[in-house]
Design goal:
Helix content is about 35%, strand content about 20%. The protein is of the alpha/beta class. A six-stranded parallel β-sheet has the order 1-4-3-2-5-6, sandwiched between helices. It has a three-stranded antiparallel β-sheet with strand order 7-8-9, with helices on one face. Bound molecules: adenosine monophosphate. The site of adenosine monophosphate has 17 residues, from helix 2 and strand 5. The site of adenosine monophosphate (AMP) has 17 residues, from helix 2 and strand 5.
Length: about 280
């Protein structure tokens, strides 16, 4: 396994693989790898000739008061986990390699970037879209892998690929969860024992919502209200938002019908967790 810090080194690795006729898979991450990331790696390993994992805590997607400086960076453990999954290349650039000064160019995926997490994290998806487009241009993967856990992000990337005619296929892989249902996240390690115990409300509220929808509930407002009440039972949980949206437009809906997503963000102290439920709802 090669670790490349520089773009030209990484490009050399990828070109050499291409000359050997291999397809290229890319798994973009911010590191602090866990089983959720590793599932993406395994999907890539099963489908593409070489697997590149990028480990880059992207400054442009963090707001001024967010956790950029304290975001976990256990690079040694990331390397060991990638090695164990037979990753071929880790791309681990420094911020100056990705954003040399002066830097002027950003990508915005209009409308889709504004609601849900975009309303409480202004500029976040501009940073995400920009770094992902840069990674696509650097690595030029045939297939790139993302997690459903970041549902709005995956939708935005798919739209960017479509709108800008990028020659890459996007795979969105199912959310990997802890035994009690909490979606795995690099941010879970910020939680203290009590917050961790209460954090199961994100998933349990979504499971309850799914059951209600399966039993015929179609009123989005009723579902959203019910989830908010469920979350409020956890004394340390502060609901950031919960919304039922159309999965294509990410716009709020009144009636649950077609391909929908119910997405939420909950804060425990300074730690913000997200989760979502996606389903096809019959009329
Ligand atoms: P991150 O390092 O948090 O930026 O995540 C990198 C990629 O891993 C993104 O595509 C995430 O959606 C995905 N990911 C993170 N957590 C999970 C999870 N629990 N299950 C599936 N994919 C995940």
């Amino acid at each position: 396994m090669r670790i490349c810090e520089r773009i030209d080194e990484l490009r050399e690795q990828v070109s050499a693989a291409r000359r050997r006729g291999l397809t290229v898979g890319l798994v973009p991450t911010m590191g602090a790898l866990h089983e959720g990331h590793l599932q993406l790696v395994r999907s890539a390993r099963a489908e593409t000739g070489i697997v590149a994992v990028s480990v880059f805590v992207n400054p442009s997607q963090f707001g001024p008061h967010e956790d950029l400086s304290r975001y976990p960076r256990p690079f040694g453990s990331d390397v060991r986990q990638c090695e164990a999954e037979a990753v071929d290349v880790i791309f681990h650039p420094q911020p100056a390699e990705m954003y040399p000064s002066p830097y002027h160019t950003y990508v915005e995926v209009y409308d889709l970037q504004n609601g849900l997490c975009g309303s409480t994290r202004p500029g976040h998806f501009r940073g995400v879209a920009t770094v992902v487009l840069k990674l696509f241009n650097i690595v030029q993967p045939d297939i790139a892998y993302f997690g459903q856990k970041d549902g709005q992000q995956a939708r935005i990337i798919q739209q960017m690929v479509r709108d800008l005619n990028l020659p890459v296929a996007i795979r969105v892989c199912e959310t990997v969860r802890e035994a009690d249902g909490l979606a795995m996240s690099s941010r879970n390690q910020y939680l203290d024992a009590e917050q961790r115990r209460q954090a199961t409300v994100l998933y349990s509220s979504l499971v309850e919502a799914r059951t209600r929808i399966e039993n015929g509930e179609r009123d989005a407002r009723a579902i959203v209200r019910r989830i908010a009440e469920h979350i409020a039972k956890a004394p340390d949980a502060q609901l950031d938002y919960v919304e039922a949206v159309d999965l294509e437009t990410l716009r709020p809906i009144e009636t649950l019908r077609g391909q929908i997503m119910i997405a939420l963000a909950v804060r425990f102290g300074a730690t913000r967790l997200i989760d979502n439920l996606q389903m096809q709802v019959a009329t």
